[in-house]
Amino acid sequence: MPVIYIQRDSEWANKMRSFELYLNGRKIGDIGDHEIKKYAVPPGVYSLEAKIDWCGSQPLALTLGKDDTIHVQVSGFVMSKYFMPSAILIALLYFFLYLKYDYNSLVLGVILMVLLGYLIFFLSFGRNYYLRLELK
Fold first, then answer.
1. The sheet that has 3-8: what strands, in order across it?
2. CA distances from 41 to 20, 57, 98, 120, 127 (A)
3. Where are the beta strands (DSSP E) in the chain?
């Protein structure tokens, strides 16, 4: 019987939340931070999706033969591992310079706006690209 292994690495952005997993539109379970799930399925053609709140992933097409084993990695949007730490660091630096030295840095302000716009894209128009599914 074919087996699908789904692995999720640890990330800052969604650390405390689980992703819902759907196979052919039917929920098959949840996957938490830094977790691996195993699903035995009959041979056939499948569409795998991951969702979290109103955001999700693009469907991943899978074709499974009699004894196939497939490994899939689910993760957040591109650069999500570095997004939160860098945004927090830049925001702290901006406010430190502003409060301590009364210095309003245009460069840091623009960087913060770009980061905010990047996040807003994935939470609105790009909501079906918020999560990524990749064959390993």
1. 35-40, 3-8, 69-76, 131-135
2. 17, 21, 57, 37, 28
3. 3-8, 19-23, 26-31, 35-40, 44-52, 55-56, 60-64, 69-76, 131-135
d(CA 29, CA 21): 5
C-alpha to C-alpha distance for 7 and 9, rounded to whole angstroms: 7
- The encoded tokens of residue 39 equal 């699903």
Helix axes 80-101, 106-123, angle to 10 degrees: 150
pTM of the model: 0.83
pLDDT tens-digit readout, 58-79: 999 999 999 999 999 999 887 7
